[in-house]
Amino acid sequence: MGSNFLLIKPLIHTFFFLLLLLRFLCVTCHHTESPEPSPPLIPEILTFLDQRLALVYPKIQSFKSTITSDPLGVTKSWVGPNICNYTGFYCGNPPDNLTATTLASIDFNGFKLTAPSLDGFLDQLPDLSLFHANSNNFSGTISPKIANLQFLYELDVSNNQLSGAFPAAVLTRNDLSFLDIRFNSFSGAVPPQVFMKTLNFLFINNNNFMQKLPKNLGDTPAIYLTLANNKFTGPIPRSIGKASSLVEVSFLNNQLTGCIPYEVGFLKKAVVFDAANNQLTGTLPCSLRCLENIEQLNFAGNLLYGMVPEVVCELTNLVNFTLSDNYFTVVGPRCWKLIKSGVLDVRNNCIFGLSDQRSVGECALFFWHPRSCLHPSWFNIIPCEVHTSKNHRRHLKSERKLVSYAALSRHRVL
Prior knowledge:
The chain is an alpha/beta fold. It has 5 helices and 22 strands. It has a 12-stranded mixed beta sheet with strand order 1-2-4-6-8-10-12-14-16-18-20-22. It is elongated and about 85 Å long. The model is unreliable at 1-34 and 38-43 (pLDDT under 50).
């Protein structure tokens, strides 16, 4: 028995050795069939066209990581060192070094990107001259560090979800000529300094600004000024007569009070003057006769009264003269002609003999409370030389594209 065991023992050892070897080989084969990729020992080296592009690359990639929605797939192109080929990014030569290549402008208009903030991105692009981002879903505030963008001259962040105070830091840029922050939730006051900058285009409509209109409003060199759909109060400043560059101005739908200043008549270049849906009162100043280029004159929805000045109805370029929803009582023969031609709208006033007027009781209640303006004699002055024109009034509608009314469209790019 013992001798048999001694003969079998080597066989048992050989069996177990073969079994372990087979198990090892199977495990080894299993791992060699699908090897896991190992991370590269050396990261990919990016080569940039210019060192200035290398500096902004991490800022762009960091901002990209915060974007939570990109329905148009814009950010798919934001890969690699060729920033100049990224969708929405444009390169150029910076003013301080015309041989360099840098990120000069960004156009995100209509991209519908969603991100919680522009901070750490917009304010970290040192050579940026233009930033346009209409119709996105950017939130947060505008960082004060935007003051460091030394070449910035156009900023458009309209139709987003931005909030906080007016981005006053941008006013440190002396060359800023275009500012569009409409259709956001900015609130508080607008710094008076904004009307002293070299801005040609200023669109701040459809926000929550609440204050009296600054007295220095007339210092603005702006060509287009749109303050509509806010909560501005107080009178239209008399300084407005100094704003000689204004072509279009809109105070539409605010809470303005007081009388229309005589100085409005000095806006010789004005094509649009819109102060509808406020609480302005008094009579229309005859100085409006000096607005020879005016096409759109709108004072609807106020507390104006008296006679519609015949001299204003002599303006030959008027396309729309809207005085509806006031308390005017008299129109003369020239104004009658404008009513018949559809140029003058006086619906819902107190004009005897016309249809679509207020009731007698409503008019009587209004005139029960006396109203007056300072310096009433000024309202009869025409501060310009009036030439009797033999030319007939234009019958065709103006084909001019009116920027201030386009600004009231949320998605319109200006």
